[in-house]
């Protein structure tokens, strides 16, 4: 497949040699599909990002770092990779109606308070019981390169491989055992050992989880109370169903959030015109625009009258 086809949204197929192991001593070829990344919501780094599909199940960052070093002639062009099933670094907790609080809860103190909250969310994670995560079959990843020119170079290298001018890269070649923990029997044995988690460590994680849960639930309730008690620009108060603590549905919360956004935007606009001299200047501008429009209308009427006076009907 030619590089220009991949730039049109199609995938360029990169064949990778998979050396056989003791359990399966047969060499195979795995096809990784690659194209320039075009996400639904564009970002500043899209020009130097590649979207990968059908990555091997034993993929790690070290594997792709060596793979792109082979394609680009050095590791300096590879910056990072994000896998589809990558674990979240923060607590993925979503208590009822807690997502309503984004952007509307009371302003919290910065610095120490926010740092403490982040540490609390990290502590809420249960202990890891796998030394190495396997990828799902056919899963995807995005690779961030150092510069945009490297994207075209990768696609050009794939084209050379298909034309027979380049050798197929070998999966795992150059990967140091120190960077990647082994699979097979040692991997399973380590998993069984880590599954017997320390009781004190597990207890602390559970306590931290409920602390974060309760904090987010409290913030959601405070927001719901604010929505019930604060009238909108027309003087009406948001009426909600369900419990006394929060709206009954996400739709109601979204509608209330949109109204609050509009109200806060209007307040910010009014603050810009707070001073009297600003109001006077604005009135002067409005008056000047009215006079200008009136003068233009007079000229238009005069031109129409002049044109009508020169009109001579046929006899």
Top keywords for this entry?
disordered N terminus, alpha+beta, five-stranded antiparallel sheet, single chain, 315 residues
Amount of helix: 40-55%
**Domains counted in the coordinates: how many?**
2
Question: Which oligomeric state applies?
Answer: single chain
SSE string: HEEEHEHEHHHHH
| Percent of residues in beta strands | 5-15%
**What structural category do the secondary elements indicate?**
alpha+beta
- Number of discrete helical segments: 8
Strand order of the largest sheet: 1-2-3-5-4
- Specify the overall morphology: flat
Report the average pLDDT across residues. Answer: 78
Reported for the largest beta sheet, the result is: 5 strands, antiparallel
C-alpha termini separation: 80 Å
Protein name: Ribosomal RNA-processing protein 7
InterPro entries: RRM_Rrp7 (IPR040447), RRP7 (IPR040446), RRP7_C (IPR024326)
Family: Belongs to the RRP7 family.
GO cellular component, one term: CURI complex
Structure summarized in a few sentences:
With 315 residues, the protein is α+β, with helices and mostly antiparallel strands.
Task: Compile the SSE list and pairings.
Layout: H1 3-7, E1 12-18, E2 28-36, E3 49-53, H2 61-72, E4 78-83, H3 112-123, E5 140-145, H4 149-162, H5 184-195, H6 199-229, H7 250-272, H8 276-309
Antiparallel strand pairs: 1-2, 2-3, 3-5, 4-5
Helix pairs in contact: 3-6
């Amino acid at each position: 497949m030619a590089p220009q086809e991949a730039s049109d949204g199609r995938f360029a197929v990169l064949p990778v040699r998979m050396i056989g192991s003791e359990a399966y001593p047969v060499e195979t070829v795995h096809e990784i599909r690659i194209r320039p990344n075009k996400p639904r919501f564009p970002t500043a780094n899209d020009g130097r990002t590649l979207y990968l599909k059908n990555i091997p199940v034993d993929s790690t960052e070290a594997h792709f770092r060596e793979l792109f070093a082979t394609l680009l002639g050095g590791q300096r062009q590879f910056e990072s990779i994000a896998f589809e099933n990558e674990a979240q670094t923060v607590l993925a907790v979503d208590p009822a109606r807690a997502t309503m609080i984004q952007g509307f809860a009371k302003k919290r103190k910065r610095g120490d308070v926010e740092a403490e909250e982040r540490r609390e969310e990290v502590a809420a994670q249960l202990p890891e019981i796998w030394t190495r995560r396997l990828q799902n079959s056919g899963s995807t990843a995005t690779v961030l390169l150092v510069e945009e020119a490297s994207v075209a170079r990768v696609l050009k290298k794939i084209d050379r491989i298909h034309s027979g001018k380049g050798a197929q890269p070998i999966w795992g070649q150059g990967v140091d055992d120190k960077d990647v923990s082994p699979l097979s029997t040692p991997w399973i044995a380590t998993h069984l050992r880590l599954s017997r988690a320390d009781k004190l460590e597990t207890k602390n994680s559970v306590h931290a989880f409920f602390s974060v849960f309760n904090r987010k639930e409290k913030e959601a309730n405070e927001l719901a109370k604010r929505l019930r008690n604060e009238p909108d620009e027309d003087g009406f108060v948001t009426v909600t169903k369900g419990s006394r603590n929060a709206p009954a549905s996400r739709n109601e919360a979204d509608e209330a959030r949109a109204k609050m956004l509009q109200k806060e935007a209007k307040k910010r606009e009014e603050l810009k015109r707070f001073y009297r001299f600003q109001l006077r200047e604005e009135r002067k501008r409005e008056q000047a625009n009215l006079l200008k429009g009136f003068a233009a209308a007079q000229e238009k009427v005069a031109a129409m009258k002049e044109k009508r006076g020169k009109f001579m009907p046929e006899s």
